[in-house]
Amino acid sequence: MRPLKASDFSFRFRAGVPCLLLVETLGEWTGRCYERVPNDGAWRTWLRKMKLPVPELPVGEDGLANMRALRAAIYEMAQAIHGKRVSRQDAVFLINRCACHTPRPRLLDRSGTALAPLAQVSNAHVLALLAADAIASFSSDARGRIKECASPTCPVMFFDRSRQGERIWCSPTCGARIASARYRRRLNSGTNYRLGATLNIWASAA
């Protein structure tokens, strides 16, 4: 197994829906499990890239722990749907509990012609939006499009948005990498076969 590089810790956006993009902030769930959101600054960067609200106050270790717990619950449910099994009830409970903190909608101000200022955004509000997306994705008739990348070295969960629903790679890069590896194996196999045949001819002639 190759050592981790700095680029491995950069954010990837291959999963297709916000809740699974959150899952993607942990690298290699079935392998080395490396963290892409180690601190408050990284969390805020990810939220901005996602165009989600950013908490006004520092999140702290408790807030990051809450994010990671929700992330693990979403991963468990995505795996259950993909594997056609019943999800653990603690995962269902945690997602439902997080969704209850959905921020209030924008309201009209006193004039009735403009929007009132946004209330303070908390980390619980942000997690509620991600939990609500998980609920919508997992309860949809399209939940069968939740898949795991077919690459043996890339266990990314993703939502298949292809027209026929037959996509098996999380991204074209993964598909190209596998195709390239298969081509090299076939090429090496053919080279070894030709070399063996040539040696056999030489041995026969000797």
What does the secondary structure layout of this molecule look like, with pairings?
Layout: H1 18-23, E1 26-27, E2 34-35, H2 40-50, H3 60-82, H4 89-99, H5 123-139, E3 146-148, E4 157-159, H6 172-205
Antiparallel strand pairs: 1-2, 3-4
Helix pairs in contact: 3-4, 3-5, 4-5
Q: How many strand segments?
A: 4
How many domains make up the 3D coordinates? 1
CATH topology: Jann2411-like fold
Number of helices: 6
Strand content: under 5%
Mean pLDDT: 87
* CATH class (first level) name: Mainly Alpha
How far is the N terminus from the C terminus? 44 Å
- Using the alpha-carbon principal axes, give the shape: globular
Fourth-level CATH superfamily? Jann2411-like domain
- Give the neighbour order of strands across the main sheet: 1-2
Uncertain segments of ≥5 residues (pLDDT<50)? Answer: none
